[in-house]
Write a structure and sequence with these properties.
The chain is α/β, with parallel strands linked by helices. It is built from 8 helices and 12 strands.
Length: 225
């Protein structure tokens, strides 16, 4: 199996070194960037399979780097940060990050989370079924890991994509926030159910589902095409 490429964007060299050492030991290929600009240009030149991204960088904030990356690529991103309040977590996730790890971290835990996200991402991307799922204005093509609205590709983050796929595949089924959190983010995710709300709001806007991805008051959400 081909080694997965990880891009570490972290200005604190000792931390970058620990991550590089830890992931290389586990068979990953690791590149390190020490500023946001450097990281962004590395990702552009040689897109990695996953980005570990520090929140506090000397030039561009990690949140902005995250936005810049997710605008152009569908690369899973894990934010690293010394901060740990719920607000910061939500802010980080709003920027398109897939997961959130607070420093100081346990290297084994970081590796485990990276593996989980890569597995989930591969599974979604590797589905080779050739059929298209058409729901109203939307068309899901799983082998492309893409959703189109009236022929135009939607610019979705990995989490938004997974969430939207879940709704498209189960029209009219009501999903609770907790069920979605477990299914899309995994049981070990540290955020809360507001994460789901934020992502649903973004999907509604991006995919034009303001009227069809509806809130079931006190329960959760359902898609009514
Ligand atoms: Ca830093």
């Amino acid at each position: 199996m081909e080694s997965k490429k990880i891009l570490v964007i972290e200005d604190e060299k000792p931390i970058a070194d620990i991550l590089k050492y830890g992931f290389e030991k586990e068979g990953f290929l690791v590149q390190c960037a020490y500023t946001g600009a450097e990281g962004f240009s590395m990702a552009r030149g040689n897109p990695p399979d996953l980005v570990l991204l520090d929140w506090m960088l000397p030039d561009i904030s990690g949140v902005d780097v995250c936005r810049m990356l997710t605008e152009q690529y569908r690369i899973p991103i894990i934010m690293l940060t010394a901060r740990g309040t719920v607000e910061d977590k939500l802010y980080g996730l709003e920027s398109g990050a897939d997961d959130y790890i607070t420093k100081p971290f346990d290297l084994r835990e970081v590796v485990a989370r990276v593996r989980t996200i890569l597995r989930r991402f591969d599974k979604a991307r590797g589905n080779t079924a050739d059929d298209r799922l058409v729901c109203g204005h939307l068309t899901l093509i799983e082998r492309e890991h893409s959703v189109y609205r009236d022929g135009a590709l939607l610019n979705l983050t990995p989490k938004e994509y997974e969430l939207l796929v879940c709704f498209l595949k189960h029209p009219r089924q009501v999903f609770t926030r907790t069920a979605l959190l477990d299914q899309i983010w995994g049981y070990d995710f540290v955020g809360d159910t507001r994460t789901v709300d934020i992502h649903v709001q973004r999907i509604r806007k991006k995919a034009g589902l303001e009227d069809t991805l509806v809130t079931v008051f006190g329960v959760g959400y359902k898609y009514v095409p």
